[in-house]
Amino acid sequence: MTHFACKYIGLPWVAGAQGPDEFDCWGMVRWILKHEYGIDVPAVNVNPDNLRSVLTAFKEDSAFQAFNEVEKPQDGDVVLLRQSKHPVHAGLWLDADGGGVLHCCRDAGVIFQDLPSMRLCGWQIDSYYRVKGK
Predict the structure, then answer these.
(1) Per-residue pLDDT at 55
(2) Domains of the chain, each with CATH number or no CATH
(3) pLDDT of residue 77
(4) How buried is residue 107: exposed, middle or buried, by Cβ count under 10 Å (0-12/13-18/19+)?
(5) Mean pLDDT for the stretch of residues 61-89
(6) What are the tens digits of pLDDT across the range 14-42?
(7) φ, ψ dihedrals at 27, nearest 5°
(8) Contact predicate 61/43, CB 8 Å
(9) N or C end: fewer C-beta atoms under 10 angstroms in the chain?
(10) C-beta atoms surrounding 85 within 10 Å
């Protein structure tokens, strides 16, 4: 893949990190939206080690008022991911290499995965969100 995302792949996951050399999942989403797409979105106030806090944040935090849910993703849309019933993780949809999700995982850091690879790792797409006015 020859894409801006290549410079982020492999950077580590660190709780609360907002970039540029380490990220948590929302920190990576915010950094890339701002620095690659020119879109500034608010931080989500969440403790990544508290599952209840994560679940609540994805549906109730004011940061998500900047987005509309969409059916079909476009390059740069936010993707909410789940490994069970509820979304607990965020990434960005990229149209690169046939489409996939750039996300920052606790054990792997920043990775890009196509949909079959995500399914093999237990991730399911919950929903897609586009910044209002994009």
Answers:
(1) 61
(2) 4-131 (3.90.1720.10)
(3) 96
(4) exposed
(5) 84
(6) 988 888 999 988 899 999 999 999 999 87
(7) -60, -40
(8) no
(9) N
(10) 9
Q: What is the pLDDT of residue 35?
A: 96
Please provide the DSSP assignment of 56-114 as one string.
Answer: HHHHHSGGGGGEEEESS--TT-EEEEESSSSEEEEEEEE-GGG-EEEEEETTTEEEEE-
Spatial distance between the Cα atoms of 56 and 73, rounded to a whole number of angstroms? 23
Give me 9's structure tokens.
């792949």
Question: Which residue matches tokens 């999700």?
Answer: 101
Q: How many CA atoms are closer than 13 Å to the CA of 66, on its beta-carbon side?
A: 15
- pLDDT for position 34: 95
3-class secondary-structure state, position 3: coil
Output the six-digit token pair for 133. 């006015």
Mean pLDDT, residues 38-55 taken together: 71
